[in-house]
Give the backbone structure.
Amino acid sequence: MKSLTFSKCLLSGLILVGSLLTSQAQAAIVINGTRVIYPSDQKEISVKLDNNGEAPLLVQSWIDEGDAHSTPDNSKAPFVLTPPIARIDKHEGQTLRVRFTGQKSLPQDKESIFWLNVLEVPPSTDDGQNKLKIAFRSRVKFFYRPTALKLDTLQVAQQMQWRLIKNTGSWVLEGTNPTPYYLNLSAVKVGRANIELDLTNSMFGPGEHKTFPIKGAMDLADTKQIDFSAINDYGGIQTVTQALTP
């Protein structure tokens, strides 16, 4: 693997596939982990990338503040990655070093969320022919976690507050995250009703309140508990059964 020192963004002149979220089943470059945690007391952390493909690839990495259309040139996230651009040979790996720059003050009483972007591009050939190159981009959540926060995912999930209300004849589930952590849900079930989750409603920020309409005509008046699953720091699933708030 060879580090490169290009200053130009590799996005130029490419067709970008998966600008919002590229499935790592499609991409040859695999990020080790489904999320990255940066403890605030660490000078730097490492993120491992592996090229599971059959060809060498150029890889550009950067962190953004939540804008899926960001580029390395316009991102203002207070983190620097080394190397920002690298060539990774087939079946080889590359370690990214991530360092908090301190250029922006981040809260020390709650988590902050960013996104790690990894863009992979097939290298140019030397045959002089014009060829279409397709770039794949993967994005994973990147959490800055102050050292004062000591709870694990299960403990955070157990503090969630849930309430069922009836609104104009239909049921609505209300959820509140009273903790200073982000909590990512993978499944929610109330009685016989499975709540539909997507990228916009499956994550609760610190102190965030969300409502989930429950589709279908059913009587939930006697429902006393909720079953839900949350994703932990390692990508595993934590399942919780919890009493509903009256």
Remarks:
- The chain has two domains: 29-124+131-145, 153-243.
